[in-house]
């Protein structure tokens, strides 16, 4: 796990909007997008259109809509973050 992945997962214990996530981890959009894509592909992150509307895999388009989503770590992501995976 990279340092950026660790820092992002640290913020995803609770649902968080992209803008707040970006502010909290302090990295630029393109770098954060790359991290989110890797983590999503690994199954460590879920994407939400709204705080109560989880998106299915067929609905997620990180390349275009990543700034519009809310993010939350999955159980697998939390296990990796805590070192119990």
Q: Distance N terminus to C terminus?
A: 12 Å
SSE string, helix = H, strand = E? Answer: HEHHEEHEH
What about the largest sheet? 4 strands, antiparallel
At CATH level 3, the topology is Arc Repressor Mutant, subunit A
Contiguous uncertain segments of 5+ residues: none
Mean pLDDT: 95
Give the CATH level 1 class.
Mainly Alpha
Count of beta strands? 4
What share of the residues does DSSP label as strand, in percent? Answer: 15-25%
Morphology call: globular
Radius of gyration: 12 Å
Q: Helix proportion of residues, in percent?
A: 40-55%
Instruction: Going across the biggest sheet, name each strand in turn.
Output: 1-4-2-3
Going by CATH, the architecture would be Orthogonal Bundle
How many domains would you count in the coordinates? Answer: 1
CATH superfamily descriptor: Winged helix-like DNA-binding domain superfamily/Winged helix DNA-binding domain
What would your notes on this structure say?
The protein has one domain: Arc Repressor Mutant, subunit A (Orthogonal Bundle). 21% of the residues are buried. Strand 2 and strand 3 form a beta hairpin. The mean pLDDT is 95. It is α+β, with helices and mostly antiparallel strands. A four-stranded antiparallel β-sheet has the order 1-4-2-3. The chain contains five helices and four strands, in the order H-E-H-H-E-E-H-E-H. It is globular, with a radius of gyration of 12 Å.
What's this, in brief?
With 85 residues, the protein is an alpha+beta fold. The chain is built from 5 helices and 4 strands; from the N terminus they run H-E-H-H-E-E-H-E-H.
């Amino acid at each position: 796990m990279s340092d950026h992945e660790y820092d992002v997962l640290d913020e995803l214990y609770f649902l968080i909007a992209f803008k707040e996530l970006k502010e909290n981890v302090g990295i630029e959009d393109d770098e954060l997008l790359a991290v989110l894509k890797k983590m999503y592909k690994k199954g460590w992150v879920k994407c939400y259109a709204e705080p109560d509307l989880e998106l299915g895999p067929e609905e997620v388009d990180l390349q275009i809509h990543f700034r519009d989503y809310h993010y939350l770590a999955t159980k697998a992501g939390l296990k990796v973050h805590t070192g119990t995976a």
